[in-house]
Amino acid sequence: MKVLVPIKRVIDYNVKVRVKADNSGVDLANVKMAMNPFCEIAVEEAVRLKEKGVVSEIVAVSIGPKTAQEQLRTAMALGADRSILVETDEDVQPLGIAKALKAIVDEEKPELVILGKQAIDGDNNQTGQMLAALTGMPQGTFASEVNVADGKVKVTREIDGGLQTVELSLPAVVTTDLRLNEPRYASLPNIMKAKKKPLDTKTAADLGVDLTPRVTTVSVEAPAERQAGIIVGSVDELVEKLKNEAKVI
Amino acid sequence: MSVLVYAEHDNAALNKVTLSVVAAAKAIGGDITVLVAGKGCGAVAEEAAKIEGVSKVLCADNDAYEHQLAENVGDLVAEVAADYTHVLAAATTTGKNFAPRTAALLDVAQVSEISDVIDADTFKRPIYAGNAIATVKSSDAKKVITVRGTSFDAVAAEGGSAAVEALDVAKNAGTSSFVGEELAKSDRPELTSAEIVISGGRGMGNGENFEILYKLADKLGAGVGASRAAVDAGFVPNDMQVGQTGKIVAPNLYVAVGISGAIQHLAGMKDSKVIVAINKDEEAPIFQVADYGLVADLFEAVPELDGKL
């Protein structure tokens, strides 16, 4: 079966985020960019399913700027067979991305779509669920375990109270949580091989999709800084401060 | 304006986070209706009817909604949403699961995890793991929003007397089914609503050592959390994780024990009123956000603290 893995190019998770002085957004000029960490987990899961013989083809897809080709190459170095870039310089938002992905799903007809539960830039946590709704697929969000068998997929989900397991008919959408797997690193030979794998470029117009944002960002501010307090010398002093100064116990 | 609030519950009782979502609804303005979808959830609907400021409660009691499957609940809410300008759900794993489905079915954007209401179209929300706060304006006629519970002071659970209306709408997509769940059983307060939270990190060394935190927590009536490092290391289950991808907490007192203070963790607790850090590494970043820091071996400091309270 075929699996589609949508990925996103985002600021590298190690980079300290700085708000622009004019409050128009976050400063992304000259900062290191990388594949969103949850997307790496999605690619890894697809590759593991292929290694188990469950999946026959992995197609990576990204909706974003031309430079997102780098992340698609990374996905192919990790094991994706080919990739599709829907190139746009628009500030793409989850609903638009989900519509573009639906168009890709209609063309590619994957039996499984695996994607990250959220991107670490917008922290929206919407795209997988929206794609599932638009395509009428069931969804297994925040997955910590995925088992495909007998034309169904069983997904164990990380929920607030613990773990929940659901069974979904295929095709289905799965979004990854942190503990689903630990992504591998791409080896040098695989990085070289990935350069020769096919990468198709499309536009939103090709897909007949409108990516115009529905939500505008009015301003972006740095959060209120928390001031460091004091270092107490002993447990006694801590108890005294909590009782008499902070009055919280 | 009219706001539909989706109630968070376990079919037996209302989750307190719903009171914070109603508070966000009040800040938006207009009539507030609470939708309770579940199975055998009549008691929850009665409870919702007593919430201060709620004018109506809709109760969709059906097998299809027993386990809050997103396919069914998402459809239901999209249909009910026809009569409202705003649809609000808590930014819990339930709300995050179905709300984007509802938004997509309505062909509107979702505004995720708002932390403040500026006006009926404009909201604040954290982005980049809380390293930036965006003010965003939605141009959609209908708004689907998830609400960060800890950012809004809960309204009173009593004082209202809304009418409860049964809603006979069965949405069953038939594409998903509930297999089972492993829920943490604990007598301690739930993390997101606890007045005091004590969390352990990698410094705890193993799961058994969390006992000293449980003992202290029981003395203080506190909830117990953990850093991602402690969860990833298998010391404790995932539902205890506090942080960007775990639970967001804002108690009166947060005690971080053996936690270095990675950005990921700080994003989940830095809105706590008072933060105490106990760590033997005086360079640990957690001390930069702590009101009271104690540089000490946690295995000596925590039992001593326990003994002196």
Automatic annotation (TrEMBL), chain A:
Pfam families: ETF. The keyword Cytoplasm does not apply. GO terms for molecular function: electron transfer activity. Its cofactor is AMP. It comes from the Bacteria. Keywords: Electron transport, Transport. GO terms for biological process: carboxylic acid catabolic process. Residues 23-211 form the Electron transfer flavoprotein alpha/beta-subunit N-terminal domain. PANTHER family: ELECTRON TRANSFER FLAVOPROTEIN BETA-SUBUNIT, ELECTRON TRANSFER FLAVOPROTEIN SUBUNIT BETA. The electron transfer flavoprotein serves as a specific electron acceptor for other dehydrogenases. It transfers the electrons to the main respiratory chain via ETF-ubiquinone oxidoreductase (ETF dehydrogenase). This is Electron transfer flavoprotein subunit beta. It comes from Alcanivorax profundi. The lineage of its organism: Bacteria, Pseudomonadati, Pseudomonadota, Gammaproteobacteria, Oceanospirillales.
UniProtKB/TrEMBL annotation, chain B:
FAD binds at residues 202, 227-228, 241-245, 258-265, 279. Keywords: Electron transport, FAD, Flavoprotein, Transport. GO terms for molecular function: electron transfer activity; flavin adenine dinucleotide binding. It comes from the Bacteria. Its cofactor is FAD. Residues 3-182 form the Electron transfer flavoprotein alpha/beta-subunit N-terminal domain. InterPro entries: DHS-like_NAD/FAD-binding_dom, ETF_a/b_N, ETF_a/FixB, ETF_alpha_N, ETF_asu_C, ETF_asu_C_CS, Rossmann-like_a/b/a_fold. Binds 1 FAD per dimer. GO terms for biological process: fatty acid beta-oxidation using acyl-CoA dehydrogenase. Belongs to the ETF alpha-subunit/FixB family. Heterodimer of an alpha and a beta subunit. This is Electron transfer flavoprotein subunit alpha. It comes from Alcanivorax profundi.
